[in-house]
Fold:
Amino acid sequence: MFRWLAVVSVVLVFAISLHHRRLARKAGETIARRREGPLFMVLRAVFALPLFAAVVAYLINPAWMSWASLALPDWLRWLGAVVGLLCVPSAWWLFSNLGKNVSETVLTKSDHSLVTTGPYRWVRHPLYATGGALILAVGLMAANWFILVLASIVVVVIRWLVVPREEAALIAKFGDDYRHYIHRTGGMLPRLLR
Structure:
């Protein structure tokens, strides 16, 4: 049951992402990943690719990842299922608001616009928050320590390396408008106090 809930969550989120990324490519500029620099290429190779491979292996045949099984209580696995399924409408909402600004990199497009609607009204990086929630949810549903450890590392890397680099690019592009936006919104979670 958990495997199928993970399949539904991952497939729907990726379908939404691919659809909106395809629309963004048709509407404008595409930025090559190599322009981000070697650090980001290495981080993808060391953490993101093994995580992606582990998730795909679990989704295709859970027995392939049984070597990393973790005894988790059912309530925690169900929590992962709920979070994973909630990532589907979250992905639709954020991509619908992001529009042609969708990019595979932390760099800004020449015609990039500052999006502050939908989930971006409260959180500056709902795409990273949703992606992080999805991979952690899959780790919980799979009850797999390897996926959970890599997912946790990826979330930390996103928060402490990717987000600052992206925000520097957004400040360079939008200046004080983005600085004001930072002060009224949270990074990956809504700001409780303003």
